[in-house]
């Protein structure tokens, strides 16, 4: 195994050909905290040979290299340090990023979901009841994880940051954090077991299966294929003609008409006879 090469300022005698600078803005609610800790922020960056200027009115922190800076990567770490402080991370935790063994990741979880209701539900799932899920993630990944507003900040070793990031991204994609937590627990057990050092651990790890209920689609019954058009629906008269009701109904209706006419004539005759009683006799 190759030995890790550590950076030393003595390896670089000359200053940078070009100076680098970046302005990092911070929200208004962090203004008071940064005002109280600005001297510690400046000292932490000066210890790494990085210049810093804090403008509380414009809420901007300028990070710059100077003539004493020799490490080209420390500028990126200094910018990350300032961003973490602006995201709500305490200065004690954020200062760890300035060391070579620590890395960070700031994840914007709001962009991963479509609605505010889903965002709040999955963010609460990531934190867990009484922050138990978040504490389990921090213990297993050996990272500092902060869920603040619309972002998640992670600080730790490279491997731990990648593991914690996967849990966060999967949670926002509707995979419960407990699945990855169970896998990490099994991994830690495998790491402590020397007999399984050279084995494939995939068969020992629980597999994540995302299940979703699919609604049954109604089967659409279409018209049978063919060149001939469909038969038109039969009328009521056609059905009565087939059964014979149509002709019987006509005969019965004609008889009823004749009987009604006879009754009308008889009624008229009776009325005429009644009227004759009131007529004066002929003289």
Short structural summary:
Helices cover 45% and strands 12% of the residues. By secondary structure, the chain is of the alpha+beta class.
Could you characterize the architecture of this molecule?
Keywords: Nucleus, Ribonucleoprotein, Ribosome biogenesis, RNA-binding, rRNA processing. The protein has helices spanning about 30-45, 75-85, 90-95, 115-125, 130-140, 160-170, 175-190, 235-245, 245-275; strands spanning about 20-25, 50-55, 60-65, 105-110, 145-150, 150-155. It is of the alpha+beta class and about 280 residues long. The strands form 2 sheets. Strands 1-3-2 form a 3-stranded antiparallel β-sheet. The longest helix has about 30 residues, at about 245-275.
Can you give keywords for this protein?
283 residues; alpha+beta; Ribosomal Protein S8, Chain: A, domain 1; 3-stranded antiparallel beta sheet; 6 strands; 12% strand; elongated; ribosome biogenesis; ribonucleoprotein; rRNA processing; nucleus
Instruction: Supply the CATH class of the domain at 101-194.
Output: Alpha Beta
Going by CATH, the architecture of the domain at 101-194 would be 2-Layer Sandwich
In quaternary terms, these chains amount to: single chain
Strand order of the largest sheet: 1-3-2
CATH fold category name of the domain at 101-194: Ribosomal Protein S8, Chain: A, domain 1
Would you tell me the structural class of the helices and strands?
Answer: alpha+beta
- State the share of residues found in helices, binned by percent: 40-55%
Q: Give the end-to-end Cα distance, rounded to a whole number of Å.
A: 156 Å
Task: Using the CA coordinates, give the radius of gyration.
Answer: 45 Å
CATH superfamily of the domain at 101-194: K Homology domain, type 1
